[in-house]
Amino acid sequence: MTSDVSDRKNTLRTRLRAARRRGVVPSMAAEVLTAVDAFAVSPGQTVCAYVASAYEPGSLEMVEALRSHGLRVLLPVVVESSLDWALHTGELRPGAYGLREPVGPLLGAAAVGSAALVLVPALAVDHSGVRLGKGGGYYDRALTLSTGPLVALVRDEEFVPSLPAEPHDVRMDAVLTPGSGLVRLPL
């Protein structure tokens, strides 16, 4: 990672986290079902999602909306420096970094490849599909194994014209915001 790009990303992360603490946290329960319909994901198919942390778009209500829609929902589990996945059956436990994780057996990192849709947390997304994450690289490493559409969830003001990018950054196929709904990328 070049120092200039790294510095720009870190500055953006600091600014975006501060703005999130002042804003309303969108549940995204209805919005994710719009994405499910737009990508023709049928009951019984797998969706990778996440349980939102403080100030992050999304909610447990969002995850339950997916399950209520008849979808098989996989949630991430942090294992050392990578993401593994487990089926969400309704029970969560405390995990790494203060995250909540499913209690079921781990399915392996490659389980993300079985998903018909992958919902991805982000601090920001740009019009070309560049996603700014929290900086650990967990999702960038995991998403290289995905074959389904990648949809980042952000607030409306976090969908921006451009972001600094590096070769390892995995591009999103769409962004989902409370105000604009689903926007396919790149624009």
UniProtKB/TrEMBL annotation:
Question: What GO molecular function annotation could you give as one example from this UniProt entry?
Answer: metal ion binding
Q: Does the keyword tRNA processing apply?
A: no
The reaction(s) catalysed by this protein are: (6S)-5-formyl-5,6,7,8-tetrahydrofolate + ATP = (6R)-5,10-methenyltetrahydrofolate + ADP + phosphate
Gene Ontology annotations of biological process type: folic acid-containing compound biosynthetic process; tetrahydrofolate interconversion
Q: What InterPro entries does the database record attribute to this sequence?
A: FTHF_cligase, FTHF_cligase-like_sf, NagB/RpiA_transferase-like
Q: Which Pfam families match?
A: 5-FTHF_cyc-lig
Q: Which residues form a coiled coil?
A: none
Which co-factor is required? Mg(2+)
Ligand binding (ATP): 9-13, 131-139
Name the EC number(s).
6.3.3.2
Keywords, sorted A to Z: ATP-binding, Ligase, Magnesium, Metal-binding, Nucleotide-binding
Q: Which residues bind substrate?
A: 51, 56
| Broad EC category | ligase
Q: Does the keyword Chaperone apply?
A: no
Q: Which family does it belong to?
A: Belongs to the 5-formyltetrahydrofolate cyclo-ligase family.
Task: Tell me which NCBIfam families the record gives.
Answer: MTHFS_bact
Q: Give the protein name, as stated in the record.
A: 5-formyltetrahydrofolate cyclo-ligase
Question: What lineage is this protein's organism placed in?
Answer: Bacteria, Bacillati, Actinomycetota, Actinomycetes, Pseudonocardiales
